[in-house]
UniProtKB/TrEMBL annotation:
Superkingdom to which the source organism belongs: Eukaryota
GO cellular component: exocyst
Biological-process GO terms, alphabetical: exocyst localization; exocytosis
Protein name: Exocyst complex component 3
Provenance organism: Hydra vulgaris
InterPro entries: EXOC3/Sec6
Annotated Gene3D superfamilies: 1.10.357.50
Example of a GO MF term: SNARE binding
One Pfam family this sequence matches: Sec6
Length: 457
């Protein structure tokens, strides 16, 4: 430390010497020595003042830190002493656990009785509430009816949970479904079934409901969402207690999607029932055009009218596109597999319609194409089942093409044979064939042949 101080003094002396040498260059500058000395002394005093302030600040900080450490040490000692006292108190209180066991049992019994007491009003009014709810369902007041159903189910589930716990504690092999309470609330399940039927009926005519009674549709979907949340709560409860309320999970959302799919299938089936006259050569063209217009109109209606009524997590527009695509695929596959070999032009009609399926007249329409592309490129695991596959499999398309080529080739061959036979008979007649203006013989065979090729190839 002393050596460092000496080195610092030497460095300061050298620096001072250089400074003096740089200031007093000429003899006439010696008159300014006193002025320079005072300036340097002022600077020195300012530096000393700052240094003292900095040192004092550091000393104050150290003093404050030491005080904090001392205070922390005292706090630690106090906490340690308090923990020892608490530990001693716990040791002394341990025997109280056995002494208060009766109080614990009484408390649990009181809690159960209090819960039962809170449900007494609903329990006594169950038959009346059931009748009222049945009338509400018939009148179409579904929200109020569902509120009553949820209250009845909540009361039933709480009571059956207690019965389940009692059986479990006693090690009984009986099920809560054997208790009188379960039989007493049996009509509640019928209310739920009636509500499900009403909602299914509304969902089955989603397009019409969205156009004319959107409030009814939204109400039904709100009820379905409530039931989905109740299902989630019951599943979590089962993980904790092992108890699953009767009739749960209801899975009404999955049921609604199944109803929508069935309604789309029925819409296609009802249009196919109109195909009574297949003797008309243009029946397939007209039917496919009718289906194209129906699909396009329905999907645009779903986008603008149905989609705002459904929760976003349903992705209802994409779901409808997938269901219509699936129904159309099955319908075309039925046509292709039952194709009449005597009508090869129908094969061409089917193949041409399939080629134009993703065009602007149908799924390539401005209103649909973005969503269709998402479904075609859908690679997410959770939505993989709703990916748009080919309208017809390659095998079916190949069989259609093969049937058309084979039938057309056979028809052309048959026609050629007949035309050649007819021409041969004409040439073998007693009269001369027709002649042109320059006296050459002529025949209409090439014209007929090219017309036939133009129509079939």
């Amino acid at each position: 430390m002393t050596e460092e101080v000496e080195l610092a003094k030497c460095a300061a002396l050298q620096k001072a010497s250089k400074y003096v040498a740089s200031v007093l260059v000429t003899p006439d500058q010696l008159d300014k020595v006193e002025q320079i000395r005072r300036k340097i002394m002022r600077n020195k005093a300012a530096v000393d003042s700052r240094l003292k302030t900095a040192v004092q600040s550091q000393i104050d900080g150290i003093r404050s830190g030491l005080n904090e450490l001392k205070s922390a040490q005292e706090d630690i000692a106090y906490v340690k002493k308090s923990l020892e006292e608490v530990s001693n108190i716990f040791v002394e209180c341990e025997p109280l656990n056995d002494k208060l066991l009766k109080v614990k049992v009484a408390h649990e019994r009181h809690a159960k009785l209090a819960k039962t007491n809170s449900h007494l009003g609903l329990i006594f009014n169950v038959p009346e509430t059931i009748k009222l709810t049945e009338n509400l369902i018939k009148e179409g007041k579904l929200l109020q009816a569902h509120k009553n159903i949820m209250e009845l189910e909540a009361t039933r589930d709480d009571l059956l949970l207690e019965v389940y716990k009692i059986y479990k504690e006693e090690g009984s092999k009986e099920s809560y479904t054997d208790s009188p309470l379960y039989a007493y609330f049996s009509e509640v399940d019928n209310l739920s079934v009636g509500m499900k039927k009403q909602i299914s009926m509304i969902i089955s005519r989603t397009l019409a409901a969205a156009r004319h009674t959107p409030t009814e549709l939204v109400t039904s979907l709100r009820i379905v969402e409530r039931e989905e949340r109740s299902d989630a709560r019951c599943i979590n409860q089962e993980k904790l207690t092992g108890f699953m309320p009767p009739g749960r999970p209801k899975c009404w959302k999955d049921h609604c999607q199944a109803v929508i799919k069935k309604s789309v299938e029925n819409r296609f089936d009802s249009n196919q029932l109109e195909l009574t006259d297949k003797t008309d050569k243009m029946w397939l063209v007209r039917h496919l055009e009718r289906m194209r217009a129906l699909i396009l109109d329905d999907l645009i209606s779903v986008k603008h009218l149905v989609r705002p009524c459904f929760p976003p997590n349903y992705q209802i527009f994409k779901l409808y596109i997938y269901y219509y695509h699936d129904a159309m695929s099955r319908m075309l596959e039925g046509f292709a597999l039952n194709q009449n070999p005597s009508r090869p032009n129908e094969c061409v009609t089917l193949l041409q319609w399939i080629a134009e399926y993703y065009g602007p007249e149908l799924l390539g329409h401005e209103e649909l194409k973005d969503y269709v592309n998402e479904l075609k490129l859908n690679t997410t695991k959770e939505n993989e089942e709703y990916r748009l596959e080919d309208l017809l499999s390659k095998g079916v398309i190949d069989s259609l093409t093969e049937l058309y080529v084979k039938t057309t080739a056979a028809n052309i061959k048959s026609c050629l044979e007949k035309m050649c036979l007819s021409e041969s008979q004409d040439w073998n007649q007693d009269k001369l064939p027709e002649t042109s203006g320059d006296g050459s013989f002529q025949t209409s065979l090439p014209i007929i042949l090219f017309q036939m090729l133009d129509q079939n190839v």
